Amino acid sequence: MLLQSPRFTGEDNPPFELKGSLFTLTVLHLFHPDRAAIERHLVEKIKQAPGFFSNTPVVIDLDGVVNSPDGVDFSGLYELLRRHGMVPVGIRNGSPELQTSARQAGLPTLPESRATGATRKPERVEPVHSRIFSHPVRSGQQIYAPDGDLIVLGTVSAGAEVIADGNIHIYGALRGRALAGVKGDVEPRIFCQSLEAELVSIAGRYRISEQIDPADRGKAMQIHLVEDRLIIEHLTR
């Protein structure tokens, strides 16, 4: 979708345009509204990967606190996340009362993602085609293959991101982020010739660099899900 600002008399070029785009968002699944407990766990997470969550957009999922008798202090939660470098952009799920409270704190309600529905079984995405990217993916680039597999014939640099609704095949080193099955399909896999990733994710289940076994780094690996657990194992030759 592309929306341009209206032209006014004497203006040759519109001052802005609005475009639809795809972004990867981190989801914070809230299970208890206790801010002190949230901060303790958040500090531990940040210690695992210093700088990884810096300026990271975050969506707060309220499914786990729907029945909380205490409600949620959204203003306090917003300040807590900002203090630790995260950027809350909205909430999803939750009761109408929680959604109203969030809006009053400046947090909009976002539509539920098919990738993380609590009771909904993700649909199998049948790949329509594969996208082949024949160049290295440089830092800051994002390559997306909608409704199919992504094949990268070079290296994915640190700071780069490759995304697919299906599988991801990397015929080089994976040093950036790779996210497969982003529409909720749990069957896709990630394959790479040298695993040096900042993050790997399938259907929203992810591991960051510090959670990858050092013995697996630099090796030809595949990543897939088994009973909702992310498995990283050597490619068989």
TrEMBL record:
Which domain of life does the UniProt lineage start with?
A: Bacteria
Query: What Pfam families has UniProt attached to this entry?
Result: MinC_C, MinC_N
Check the record and name the SUPFAM superfamilies matching this protein.
Cell-division inhibitor MinC, C-terminal domain (SSF63848)
Does the record carry Cell division as a key word? yes
* Segments forming domain Septum formation inhibitor MinC N-terminal: 16-88
Residue ranges of every copy of the Septum formation inhibitor MinC C-terminal domain listed in the record: 133-233
Q: What's a GO biological-process term for it?
A: division septum assembly
Keywords from the UniProt entry: Cell cycle, Cell division, Septation
Q: Where is this region: Disordered?
A: 96-125
* InterPro entries assigned: CAP/MinC_C (IPR016098), MinC (IPR013033), MinC_C_sf (IPR036145), MinC_N (IPR007874), Septum_form_inhib_MinC_C (IPR005526)
Tell me the protein family, please: Belongs to the MinC family.
Question: Which HAMAP family does the entry link to?
Answer: MinC
NCBIfam families assigned to the protein according to its UniProt record, in alphabetical order: minC (TIGR01222)
Subunit text = Interacts with MinD and FtsZ.
Described purpose of this protein according to its UniProt entry: Cell division inhibitor that blocks the formation of polar Z ring septums. Rapidly oscillates between the poles of the cell to destabilize FtsZ filaments that have formed before they mature into polar Z rings. Prevents FtsZ polymerization.
- Identify this protein by name: Probable septum site-determining protein MinC
Give the organism the record lists: Candidatus Contendobacter odensis Run_B_J11
